[in-house]
Amino acid sequence: MDTLVLDVPQHSKRPFPNDDSLAQGASSSIVRGPSPYENVLYEQISCLVGAQVRSKIQRIEAGVMNLLRSCLESEGGSSTSIISGHVDHHQSLSSEDKGWGCGWRNIQMMSSHLLRQRPETREVLFGGCGFVPDIPSLQRWLEIAWDKGFDAVGARHFDSKIYGVKKWIGTSECVTLLRSFGVRARIVDFDSTESSSLQGKSGKRVCGPMDKYLIKTNPLPRSSSLELSQEDAENMRGQQVLVDWVWNYFSSKRADVLHNSKNVIISDKTPLYFQHQGHSRTIVGIQKQKGNRGSQDRYNLLVLDPGHRTADLERSLTTKKGWPRLLKRGVHTLRKPQYQLCYVDPGIANSEETEQLKTIDSILIRF
Q1: How many domains is the chain built from?
Q2: 305 an active-site residue?
């Protein structure tokens, strides 16, 4: 799969998610032409499709996910890992975006998967160009998403200007950008703060298709002086909710299995944009290690971090030395009170659904 060469068209055949997007609201008996504003927007999109620049990355010849699969298969013990099919690693560069660009790099990693694994998304994403754009191009696409009416709250926060700005972005901007192409991107909030309530960002409770995958875990026993402190035990129990959600996301029966070896499954699920205070990363899979003698199963998130050098990842995965330190994150490492995940449902939204996707809501899970 990693040797597939993408054909790059010279121009976009479908700069909008749907051919009728400029005629939304027209009745069956009255057909209106595009407004002057819509003509300007269309022209901006056409220009950007031709002017956008491919993101430059250090290519891993064998493919980072193929190397990760090999490392996971070589591990001893009783474990099961489920990973996404294809993801390219995009690292932050000191000369370009070190310290502020992690969000954009994670959008690029998610996009590398969508362009390779989902033909229907490749047709519309970034105007159908077939490649992952660089950060300045992505910033232009986000401004266009705001101009099209996506995430009015976020647009006001940034004053509708993000091009050339060295500011952090988060899950909302990732979802806004993807939804502007008709991609069904969703947000899940995991929150342990007292100020949170069972409401989404729009002020109402939002239910989604992943709610049923929330597993209620049994309380951990009260700690003694030789065990975890009560606060640490409470935190780990809460973070386990997030890990359970991720496990059930990747292991969902609705997911197609692309490869199945002794202890590694390749799923067609998209990677997850993983946001917390101060940083974001990309979850490309999860590992479950069977507990011994009645002890609980242990889970490790499998994470690509834009803060890591691609050369270091390739070396550690190729030699099978030191790679767990770079890619594995256990429950005990999840110490933040709030996390956000972005995932993508299959298919492309039609015009009516695209209008609904302009409001950025989230599923809220308290722990």
Answers
A1: 1
A2: yes
